User: Fold these one by one.
Assistant:
Number 1:
Amino acid sequence: MRSKHHIFFITLLLTTSAFCQIENLKWQKADLSYEKPNKFRERTYSFKSDNAGELLKKSFVNTYWFFISDVDGDNCAFRPSCSSFFIDATEETNIFQATLMFSDRLVRDTNPIKINNYPRDKSNHYYDPANNYTLNSEEINYLPPTFIVDDE
Amino acid sequence: MISVNKIFFLIVLSSFWFINVLAQTTFESQFNYAEKLYDEENYFDAVTEFKRLLYFDKSESYDYRANMFIGLSYKQGGKFSEALQFLSLARFHSESDKEFFNSSIEIIKVNILRRTTGRAFALLDTLANDNRFINKSEEINYWRGWAFIFSDDWQKAASTFSKYKSDEQLVELCDSVTNELYNTQLAKYLSLIPGAGQFYTGEYISGLISIGWSVLWGYLTIEAFIEDRILDGVLIGSMLWWRFYSGNIQNAEKFALEKNLEITNSALNYLQHKFAGEKP
Amino acid sequence: MRKILLIIFLVQLTIFPQSTSFDFHSPQKIKLFADYLFCEKDYLRAIEEYEMIRNQFVIDTIEFKVMLGYSNLGLSKNSNKIFSDFNIESKLYPDAYLVSMKNELLIDSKPLHYSEFSSFTSSQFESYVRLLNISALYGDEQSITKNNFLTLYSKEDQNTLSKLYDYKFDPPYKSPAWAGIFSAIIPGSGKMYVGEWGDGITGFLLTGLFAFLAYDNFKADHDTRAWIFTGIGAFFYAGNIYGSISAAQIFNAKINFEFSNGLKLFLENKNYFIPDYDFCK
């Protein structure tokens, strides 16, 4: 008798768990908004840092952004921009390797034919993160050119 | 004394009536059940129940109503193409001018929401030219105004709403938005004077920095040319002066667009959440 | 007169229970509606309806349709769970067997080890062999030659499968080391070796330009300027070598991606492995 109950409960559980997956697929009322999405780049000028070295680096970068990069227009066809790329590269490897990565990035930016090589992001720039160039093949996250990246 | 025949006749007749009513009642109660699900915002299940009703209803008497509800449920779920598919089906099965008009208006509203306003305008024109709906011109005009809002043409929206007194509040809103918006072309042309476009859009600091760079590199370029250092002059002029100068024009346009987006989005936000009138 | 009226009344009495008992949610009606939804490809709703009546109607066609529905929705595990209780005597069992093989491959990208089922028809056996061999592409053993592999499939698929086979067992990788060496000898050539012609030419031109400017300024005795140009040239030269190595790595990653992605898409889209049923004809 006991085993019959067990089987019943297990069946119930299995069917409800299958059902739950179905429930998750059912669409709900959508959170519609009349507003149009904001596709402009927002710089984060943060000075949050763990040590003096980082604070110094952030000051340099923010100064560069504020006085030069934000004023000379949108010159980089890539996202992250070349300066952000350099910052990410220094965070992932070291300054020497980052310099090499930066040099390569400048060459790739100067090359006018990019269309078949890189995926795009929402603001129609080419998506080219630093982790693909660290020479550590496990970090490479290849995305095909037809892909559209959704995160920032 | 009523004859037995007559009593029999009465029983048979009343049972005919009874059966018909009851049979309809089961379909009607299915319809009501589905409508209840819609009212409870349980849209997926509402669609299922309306589809169930339509599948079994051989009399086709629910075609208009059920398809309208299915379309509206999809609209609430944000699935606009499916919504349009079923609303068009509802319009196809409409049995009166009123039903035709209502389904057309719902189709127009979905087109407005997904910003395919060209289609919305075309449909509004068709309705406006239809002789059956001459007395509905106020409503048609109202949705035309909304279509202008969603095409980002607040000026035309204001002039459309101003045709009827009842839309005064909307006229005010659209007029105020039109007045606040920056003229993107003007921002670009003003930037021919470095910094002027950015001052126009209210970004004073950025404008000052732009002026600074343009003056510096411009001075160095001209100095290089005067001193006959042509290559230097060309290099500084093209790689530095031009870069900051064109950046200044680009920025003026970008600031104008950004600020305009903020203004229009806050107006749209007000319309969605605080405006009490009918919305798409 | 009375007799006629009595007959009419009795006839109505028989209609009466049927029409008032139009129960939308009776198992028979649910099954009819579910069948309609299945043929309209509204699998999610069809499964919901079928799940409501599966305990009352243990029919193999329903079980099979639910399996197919889950499979079409991408819920391969649920689909296979149903297969575990599928009646082996059923006429649909061989087809369900094939669907479960495909599901298993989508759940776990490993070579399949399913034995042949005795009652396969010849076309079912063909699908079985095709599935087995596709799954072999997920393993490491090159258990079949390329020609024998390709002949199992239709002509229109042979191109795709040929590329996938090569990518698995003989991938056209580029050597990062060689890319670096080439670029050290002629700047940009390493990138061209990897197939990045635009980047290679740009790198070559930039390094060349600054090398020329440095040489030119040294000749004209403008030493500081010449050293600056030398520095920039070296910057681009070193960066180009580095970039060629990483470009080769990215190229290899691209091969791996195109293989796994291509195989998955082939499995999901190909209708070989979905049996030709006539529920909806």
Note: The two ends of chain B are 64 Å apart (CA to CA).
Number 2:
Amino acid sequence: MVTGNATVDLAGGHSGPPPREAGNAIVEMRGISKRFGPVLANDNISLTLREGEIHAVLGENGAGKTTLMNILSGMYRPDSGTILIRGQEVGIGSPADALRQGIGTVYQHFTLVPNLSVIENVILGTDAGFVLDLTESERRLKAMLGDFDLNASPRTEVRHLSLGQRQRIEIIKVLFRGSRVLLLDEPTSVLTPVEVEGLFSILLRLKTEGVAVVLITHKLEEALEVSDRVSILRQGRKVGELGSDEIAGAGRSATKGRIVELMFGGSPVGETERRRDGETERRKDGETDRRTDKTLLSLRGVTVHGDRGEAAVRGLSLELFAGEVLGIAGVDGNGQKELGEVIAGQRHLTDGQVVLDDVEMTNRGTAAATRAGIGYVTDDRIGEGCVPGMSVAENAVLKMVTRQPFSKGIWLNRKAIEAEARELVTAFNVKTPSTATRVTLLSGGNIQKLLLARELAMNPKVLVCNKPTNGLDVKTAQFVLRTLREQADAGKAVLLISSELDELLALSDRIGVIYNGQLLAVFPRAEADLERIGHLMLGGTDREKVPA
Amino acid sequence: MNGIDLSDFIAAMLATGLLRAVPLVLAGLGEAVAERAGLLNLGIEGMMLSGCFFGFWAAYHTESLTVGMLAAVAAGLVLGLIFGFLTISLRVDQVLVGLAITIFSAGLTGFLFRDLFGGQNVSAAVDPLQVAIPVLRDIPIIGEPFFDRQLIFYLGWGLVPVFAWLLVRTRFGLNVRAVGENPFAADAAGVNVIRTRYLAIAIGGAMAGFAGGYLAVADLKIFTIGMTVGQGFIALAITMLGRWNPYRIVVGAILFGMLRALADGLPILGVDVRTEFIGMLPYIGIMLGLVVLAGRTALPAALGVPYARGQR
Amino acid sequence: MTPRGRIVSAASLTPFVSSLLAIGLAFLVGGIFLEARGKDALLAYRILFERGLGDADGLTETFKQMAPLLIISGGLLISLRAGVWNIGLDGQFMVGALMAGVVGAALVGDVSRWLMLLAGAVVGFAGGLVWATVPALLRVRWGLNEIITTLMMNYVGLNLTSWLVKGPARDKARVAPETVKIPIADRLPAIPGTEVHVGLIAGLVVVVLVAVLFRSTVLGYMLNVLGRNPRAAIHAGLPVGRLTALALLLSGGFAGLAGASDVLGVQGFFKANWDPGYGFTGFALVYLARLNPVWLVPFAFFFSFLLIGGESMPRRADVPTYYVEMLEGLMLIFFAAAVYLEGLYAPGARRTARDESEPIVSPSGLVGETPTSVLSPGHPQGPSVVPSGDPS
């Protein structure tokens, strides 16, 4: 992708950046605190950003990284603390203020308006007179687009661009205004590894131009790859800061261990590292795969369209056997959600067949799929999985309210519903004041446990889970994964869709890789390793090197 | 046909149709701005009705067209700002607030008309400033309908390209489009979402009031209770049919203006149809239009959705 | 699930603070407006209360007035709970009223009084239902949002009934365009011991049915799910299209039944250009009752006496009846503001940023998180004022 001569020599960057003098501090955040209800999201955090330095802010989900960045970008106001820019204390009350101070942000969920053109997006919010004069801006923008290896026309509507291209437009948009501080929130989460390399080369170049770059991430490897300085947040507090001398060179692997300890505190390093650090141990008993030869679910040549009418899953076939966990790996947005939904009956097949335990299920709808024994845990817990205004009990029976004993004919049996809910809450250790509590008052982890309990209560033959541990704390995540394993061991078939390779490797009997709506390969766990999966996730063919 | 010349009839239909289209165009232009900014204004009917009454009331007392129109615009503007306060600042449901404003306006104008005019049908003695454009007005058939009109008629049509320009070529228009599509993105880019939406609804309200003023002051010179009979809602539907493009809104408005003119015209031609029967046509036409266009429109993604920074 | 068995608990009363506040503010601001217009506001309000509540005669009228309001708002509540905007109540009401008037008058003398009345009620319900079928079909088949289509159907209904009553359905023996009169002796009988016709009982029955629907039935549960989170309804495999259509049809049917009740019980015939405009009153009523069926009754009583009392205001206080409509609008406006305040001060309302923030009066959901359009929504959306003090 990035082959232009403007690209900085990445290899040099990797083996240890040359020692640099620390640039001048542009931004100093001092003693920043921010509270949301009972949660202290930022607790007295101080951070200094310097010219020509890439500063990674590292932490687990929920450690307070995004809050901290949102304070600097003007989305939130801090409860206490001060922000200094070039030594001057400033108040940042809105994103417009931050932009005026030269602080530009690339948010995790991109902030381009899809049906405006590139140029319109770039000049949006700049002040240059009432009547739009695009000629001068367009000239400047064209030059920048060339600089960033983008051959899109300024007049193209943004919705026609790929995610990687959009991200560069975001960066251009920030630089176009002359921002000297660039904040990036989890910029790699939507990118393929090739695109990640492209992004990093851009960041390294900006660094040489004196821009202060902040890289917010929960991925340790990434942070170490390009950063000059790493700050580690944990539970709202800054627990450590490492300079380039500690990150670079020989000390790196020792540093890694230290960072993991800082990120996760007292928790056993082996455990967390297994989940977070990519250095996955094999499942202790996991060399043999435990699937039986009984096919529970088969998809044959399934083609499905996504929300925007694009073919999201194309001619995909797979077999799911009783007793196994089949992991589906892939970069987000390669048809995983649609795959889960088509099995659950929520999405219409335009071609192909779904067969459950020898029963034809093609396009028979959600209710039929549920009745036939397909369980589906959605990745959108609150938006789709539950009814916010309703109680825990009412949510617990959402999918089985028409069954005995929860209803008889047209009548609800509230006693039975209540009893069932209590049973599920106890069995899955859902922390809730009562079953009458509104479900939205529960934490994400407890909602997830409830949704899982709800599916298992219907005793499905096949269970499809899309990103079941997303955003959960380690303990709950492990509970969820253990439950899935138990289900498979009890003779069910589990399809685990996830982008967390570690949990896939830890749990699955077989692993398939989805790319661009197609299943590239399915292989037993014993033959799977990170490199092979990672290579496939980028669309490479199996057993072949990525072209350099 | 009982001896009426067909070309005269067509000219008359065209003339009436254009006349009937003006309030729809005016209200529709304002609504286009509001909707593009993410505000579905069901209060448009009430704002138009208030424009009718307050415009008429001011014109009746001052015998001035200008004062009447200004009062009409002011009435729409005030209601627009109330709508804005409740939906933008308090983030209350837009449909609920829109209906509330329409109900309130119906009551208020009915009350005031009864109270101030005793329910009598009086007319305002305003001079609508007829302007005939030389030469052009002598073109057969289209001459009279297009070029022998009140000043305000030309003004109304003149606003169409102005709004098209405003939405596409100005910073304000760009902000409006961004705010209706992705308010978070607009905010992050430094656009003041709240202010942009307030401006949009102010324009929407003012234009609805203007439309009402045109109806009651310039065109009919009288007020009757509930005189808008759903024209505000029709303007809203036409705006959606025209997908917020001022020129397409004009096409829709003329089409429905002609349908209404037909209701007046057919009996003159001696066709035996009850006016109520033809009166249904515009409304049925709107629904048919919606069916035809179903699926081919993309609404502003944030239409109807309030914005609060930090909540996504 | 709130504890069953108690209709009113202290906790279920709190949401009505907003409603009462809205009513109070509307009266206050309305009163100031009256004074500014040189009226005697206190006198006007005294007459309002005296006429609507003060004597047996007024109370009788108020109770009579409750019948159509209870029926129409019971139906509206079903659709709003399901997240479906039925703004076409007036059209449905008119069509139902006309059909009941025509069929009732045609049957008088041929069949027994009760059978005639029953037939009138049934065709009234059917008329409203048929009128709601159009937007329901457009919604389910073509995905057209019901807001615009129900609005348009109002005006079609208004014109259609007006055309019919001036043409085919007209009583040729009379000068004014009206349907044939149903003799007083054949209209809805009075509740024994009162002069209030049994339409009131029908209205109470409707409310009870609606309350039972949402409290105890699977259908009510499903409609609630649909109204609160349509995506969850799809996820759970509920028959979303059928539920949406059913909500519209039921509310349309009840609007038609309300029309039948007015024609069979009070008017005796349908006359041209008669449009009591209960649709808007119904909206104000259902919202102030916080979409809670039980609370429809006191609020229907309240709105009834406003309407009845308002009729006496022009003569005795020189205040046009339109004042009541204005009050309704003010109440809704203040209600909207009060609900916002409620969100700020309710216990536990301090939401964390991470918490799913549940909008106080949620976005009309014209467009939800998934891009959809008013013209062609992907799945049902609509109003979802989150009712607190919810019986279910």
Note: The two ends of chain A are 10 Å apart (CA to CA).
